[in-house]
Design a protein that fits this description.
With 282 residues, the protein is an alpha/beta fold. It has 2 domains: 2-115 and 242-275, D-Maltodextrin-Binding Protein, domain 2, CATH 3.40.190; 117-240, Periplasmic binding protein-like II (D-Maltodextrin-Binding Protein, domain 2). Helix content is 32%, strand content 22%. The strands form 2 sheets. Strands 1, 2, 3, 4, 5, 7, 8, 9, 10 and 12 form a 10-stranded mixed sheet that branches. Helix 2 (53-66) runs antiparallel to helix 10 (267-275). The longest helix has 14 residues, at 53-66.
Length: 282
């Protein structure tokens, strides 16, 4: 949340920002502001990826300063639910932290607003700090069961993953080549829950959005490459995925929703993206 507030304070058009944001699964709304925009009014509804929560909160706060008359509400139940909701016309925009599947893309426009790395999260006390993609696949399929096989102590590996609706899980399993092959000890419903599980167990391994990594966990190198923007852009770090704000191809986007999406894709919105450690799509 500190990153969100510092980013928005730096980018605000004018006036004081209102702190406070939704906890995972709750809504974040724009309700008031002081900066003059077009004077637009209306409501924008979004739902989807929990990995995109910090980004969405930053964007909503920044947009509040520009268009205080527009209310933007976002829920964070997971990418799968976001795609279902926008496909069924229940929301204006469905957020997904993965590429759209072919059958989804037939009906939805994939608006990629940022690129995010996927970090392999380890407990800071874990001696292991560099895992290859091949070793990662073997860990998640149960072939490698002990940390001593990848540079750690002689301890059983506790494999943490996300729930089936998670875009992070979809992207991770696809990149690593372990779809429908993983043997999870736990399947958790949010990025925060994965971080908490790994932070509280020195033998746990999990995957989270790179921009969610803080001092409670550490991001392992992957095949010698650091988990950072430079390694993602030069292709040496293999775990990355898009942040998508999906819209319907068959239903016209409302004027308030289109204006918000244009803001996100524009200069001010992309400044928020960069300020939160995410990568702007080239």
């Amino acid at each position: 949340m500190k990153k969100v507030l510092s980013a928005v304070l730096a980018l605000a058009v004018s006036g004081a920002l209102f702190a406070g944001c939704a906890s995972p699964g709750a809504s974040a709304s724009s309700k008031a502001g002081t900066a003059a925009g077009t004077g637009a009014t209306g409501k924008v509804s979004l739902t989807g990826s929990s990995s995109m929560q910090e980004l969405m909160e930053g964007l909503i706060e920044a947009y509040k300063e520009v268009e205080p008359g527009v209310t933007v509400e976002c829920q964070y139940p997971g990418s799968g639910q976001g795609i279902t909701a926008v496909t069924e016309g229940k929301v204006d925009i469905g957020n997904a932290s993965r590429e759209l599947k072919a059958e989804e893309a037939a009906n939805l426009e994939a608006n990629i607003v940022a690129i995010d790395g996927i970090a392999v999260a380890l407990n800071p006390a874990n001696k292991a700090d560099d895992i290859s993609v091949e070793q990662l696949a073997k860990i998640y399929t149960g072939e490698i069961k002990n940390w001593k096989e990848v540079g750690g102590d002689d301890k059983a590996i506790i494999v943490i993953g996300r729930d089936a609706a998670s875009g992070t899980r979809e992207a991770f399993e696809s990149i690593v080549g372990v779809k429908e092959k993983c043997k999870y000890s736990q399947e958790l419903t949010s990025t925060g829950a994965v971080k908490t599980a790994v932070a509280s167990n020195p033998d746990a391994i999990g995957y989270v959005s790179l921009n969610a990594v803080d001092n409670t966990v550490k991001a392992s190198k992957i095949g010698g490459a650091e988990a950072n923007e430079a390694s993602i852009l030069d292709g040496s770090y293999k775990l990355s995925r898009p942040f998508v704000m999906a819209t319907s191809k068959t239903k016209t986007l409302s004027a308030p929703a289109k204006a918000f999406l244009d803001f996100v894709k524009g200069e001010k919105g992309q400044e928020v993206v960069k300020s939160l450690g995410l990568i702007v799509k080239k």
